[in-house]
Amino acid sequence: MDTSTIFLQIFNTVFPLASIVLVAFFYARVRPTDMTVANRINISVFCPALIFSVMASKDFHIAQYVDLIIAATVVVLGSGLLVWPLCKWLKISPKTLVPPMMFNNSGNLGIPLIVLAFGESALPIAVVLFLTENLLHFTVGMYLLNPKTNLLNVLKMPMIIATILGLVWSLQGWTVIPAVKVSVDMMGQIAIPLMLFALGVRMTNVDFSEWKLGVISGFLCPLSGLIIAAIWYYVVGMSPENFAYLLIFACLPPAVLNYMVAELYQQEPHKVASIVLISNLMSVGIIPCVLFYVL
Fold it and tell me: What is the DSSP letter of 255?
């Protein structure tokens, strides 16, 4: 593939994502928009529908993705271990910096990015990576901020329920009634653009009071993930195709959910907001570089 073709593919991958985020950003600037209800519906209805739709399909076999799930888990946990010693040097609490460096934007950004870069056939992989990161966020991430968190509450989350149902459906080889499948598929198709729109609205609240920390984090988050991914690839090994998916996953910026959780536990949310939002802005320059390598 020649250089011009690669640049065109990168543009075709990044532009649709950036354009939706920008439309949301400018719309929210003109008309201040509260996405609280929409986000809650997306997390409770549309994302679970997308997860079940993918996992209950005939082409989905969880055993195909075990290596990638393990590698993604190592990237998430390894990033945290790599960044932790730097907290003292940066004079910041590990509870503030480490979670955003571990838990990346594999939903709002990761799913559409992987699908646009590798085609619709990569959707199951994007969903599996998203589920891996999300499950770790709601278990390890919550425990990091509050060791007294009841981890059994994770089982009550709609996305986890949809994952379990989808997994059972897949393992049993059941098929979904066509009329029901169309309904679930249509609801699932709402999830990705709504995630991107919500990210754009959130960008209107960028806090530049901690811009230095935000910029450092903008480099630190993808760098730590890519280092762990490279170590895993060269020490343990995996297929080049899966390594490409892993690199995209590893270079993603922090998830917006980090800010929401920090606000919930009052863990310096203003600093976490700067880390998350400035890192997401910087990813516009970092992600194309990684795409250039993997494509």
Answer: P
